[in-house]
């Protein structure tokens, strides 16, 4: 999909807390018009939920929640030696180490969290191509949230329990059942999917408190993290541009032959 080294997609989902205690009402009513509990989830390309962190009160945003997520914070250490290759702007294959997650612009600028370019950062064809491709691939985690709320009315209509731990267990159980149902559905390789950023003709269709970020066990400053983030996003943007050009050339040669 033009994103080598990506482990999955990460985002936060808010679930209505219908029976929220009065003492937690103010800190649970955030961007929604009702009190909610937030869960941060990591999903893979096949919409399988790999990690869940939460719950957090609905007033907390993505930047605050990700600081407390041990799973996201450990990627810099546990997966720092994962090797992947990319094309530079001249088409040369270069090696890079360190896995990452793709996300939206609501997250912090860390090298393990790659987001699209904002309009204020420029709107060149290369940046637009990268942003559109990343947004397309990142819809996996959004689809997971829609599937969860569509299948389980306890998530769609809201938690009916006052105990926050009980609400956490309900969400975890729904995620486990979601993954179990995926295991039952996958009996044979699915057909090619559409809208994944790959140049293919004749596509088929198928339906706790904040912690310091640790980079290699060494506390990294915000400036260094932003520099690493911008460097990694730029090399991924150039890789996608060259990769798409090579895919197009291969398709033209196939047609001509």
How would you characterize the overall build of this protein?
The protein has 257 residues and is an alpha/beta fold. The chain has one domain (6-189, 216-256). The chain has 9 helices and 9 strands. The strands form 3 sheets. It has a 5-stranded mixed beta sheet with strand order 3-2-1-6-7, with helices on both faces. A two-stranded antiparallel sheet has the order 4-5. The chain has a two-stranded antiparallel ribbon with strand order 8-9. The longest helix has 35 residues, at 222-256.
Fold topology:
Elements: E1 6-16, H1 25-28, E2 36-43, E3 49-57, H2 62-68, H3 70-73, H4 75-78, E4 83-87, E5 93-97, E6 100-102, E7 113-114, H5 125-137, H6 139-151, H7 153-156, H8 164-185, E8 214-215, E9 218-219, H9 222-256
Parallel strand pairs: 1-6, 6-7
Antiparallel strand pairs: 1-2, 2-3, 4-5, 8-9
Helix pairs in contact: 5-9
Q: Round the mean pLDDT to the nearest integer and report it.
A: 83
DSSP strand tally = 9
Share of residues in strands: 15-25%
Q: How far from one another are the termini?
A: 25 Å
Could you tell me the radius of gyration in angstroms?
A: 20 Å
Tally of separate domains: 1
Q: Largest sheet, order of strands side by side?
A: 3-2-1-6-7
Largest sheet: 5 strands, mixed
Put the structure in a nutshell.
By secondary structure, this protein is α/β, with parallel strands linked by helices.
